[in-house]
């Protein structure tokens, strides 16, 4: 009788422990992610784009390749230095760019004032 009770008690404890155990985390339970999906967008007031993105046109640098659709400008009209052979002045947004015709490499960048 003692043996039967001990066996029943041991069996009951073993079964109840596995019944109350938490499920294994398989990282596929996405039910609670609905509210957190876009939480990173709600971190305070929006300040707008960074300063370099606010400027009209692109942020060009000497040595970059120019792939824009800016138009060729008359350098005399805008009081720019004459470009060397194989180069031309282009205007893109608020910048004048001296660009090599053959390669598209930017040789000089000047901010437009008008």
Question: Can you tell me about this structure?
Answer:
By secondary structure, this protein is an alpha+beta fold. The protein has a domain at 58-114: Nuclear Transport Factor 2, Chain: A (Roll), CATH 3.10.450. It is built from two helices and four strands, in the order H-H-E-E-E-E. The protein has a four-stranded antiparallel beta sheet, with no helix packed on it. The relative contact order is 0.13. The mean pLDDT is 77.
Intertermini distance: 104 Å
Kindly identify the CATH topology of the domain at 58-114. Answer: Nuclear Transport Factor 2, Chain: A
**What's the helix-strand series?**
HHEEEE
Question: How much of the residues is beta strand, in percent?
Answer: 15-25%
Q: Which stretches are poorly predicted, pLDDT < 50 over at least 5 residues?
A: none
| Sheet with most strands: strand arrangement | 1-2-3-4
CATH architect. name of the domain at 58-114 = Roll
Give the tally of β-strands: 4
Region (Disordered): 21-62
Transmembrane segments: 96-113
Biased composition (Basic and acidic residues): 23-32
Organism: Pseudoxanthomonas composti
